[in-house]
């Protein structure tokens, strides 16, 4: 990802059927039919399927199961900061599985527009820059991290925070979205605007980010930055 100048927001915030057991006649039943070798093989297959399903309750079939799972994993984690390494791997695995169900050419899908909360990032400093570093979090508590995508090509990012526990502030960016192909987008941002108390000023220069949309529906959006950061966005109600 190239950037013409450093930014406090360097990356776009851009988410077997159970075996149907059949009645098995018993020798005492008038309908009893001796089991053939093919029947035994079929029954053995059913038992194996049942064993796999019972021993692996985490098997997920599709978005209806994956979306709630990934949201439950990242909720109340300070956007991923509090997760352990293994938990980050679990989020990544769920995101990879969801990618299989992504709509064709998500960049062109109207669902991309709207107000989104950034609920997870695999790298804490990707959204928020220095404010989200280990040192920065000692002084700045993130309150909200929002991205608004407006038709036809406007992106607005905002991070609101509390400094030292009593001084409210926010950093915002406005950018222009360019579709690179059906999955990748590029956003060129204007210089960031910082508001702290009664102060309001701009600093720095333009910045640029690229992001691949890997999954999109009416609830969540997943994105992968050009440096590999995974983002999970949840649509604001």
Automatic annotation (TrEMBL):
Keywords: Plastid, Transit peptide
InterPro entries for this protein: PAP, PAP/fibrillin_dom
Pfam (any one): PAP_fibrillin
Primary location group: plastid
Plastid lipid-associated protein/fibrillin conserved domain: residues covered: 69-194, 206-233
Gene Ontology cellular component annotations, sorted alphabetically: plastid
Location of this chain's protein in the cell: Plastid
Family: Belongs to the PAP/fibrillin family.
Protein name: Plastid-lipid associated protein PAP / fibrillin family protein
Organism per entry: Quillaja saponaria
Highest classification ranks of the organism: Eukaryota, Viridiplantae, Streptophyta, Embryophyta, Tracheophyta
């Amino acid at each position: 990802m190239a950037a013409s100048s450093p930014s406090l927001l360097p990356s776009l915030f851009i988410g077997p059927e159970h075996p149907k057991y059949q009645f098995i006649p018993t020798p005492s039943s008038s309908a009893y039919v001796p089991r053939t070798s093919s029947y035994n093989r079929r029954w053995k297959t059913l038992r194996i399927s049942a064993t796999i399903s019972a021993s692996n309750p985490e098997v997920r079939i599709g978005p209806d199961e994956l979306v709630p799972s990934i949201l439950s994993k990242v909720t109340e984690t300070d956007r991923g900061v509090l997760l352990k390494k293994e938990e980050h791997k679990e989020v990544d695995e769920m995101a990879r599985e969801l990618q299989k169900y992504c709509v064709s050419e998500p960049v062109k899908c109207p669902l991309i527009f709207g107000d989104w909360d950034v609920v997870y990032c695999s790298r804490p400093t990707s959204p928020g820059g220095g404010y989200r570093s280990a040192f920065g979090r000692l002084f700045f508590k993130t309150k909200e991290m929002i991205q608004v995508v407006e038709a036809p090509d406007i992106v607005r990012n905002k991070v609101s925070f509390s400094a030292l526990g009593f001084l409210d502030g926010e950093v915002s960016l406005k950018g222009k979205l360019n579709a690179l192909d059906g999955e990748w987008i590029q956003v060129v941002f204007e210089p960031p605007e910082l508001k702290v108390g009664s102060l309001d000023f701009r600093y720095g220069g333009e910045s640029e980010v690229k992001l691949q949309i890997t999954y999109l529906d009416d609830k969540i959006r997943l994105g992968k930055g050009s440096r590999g950061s995974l983002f999970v966005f949840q649509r604001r109600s």
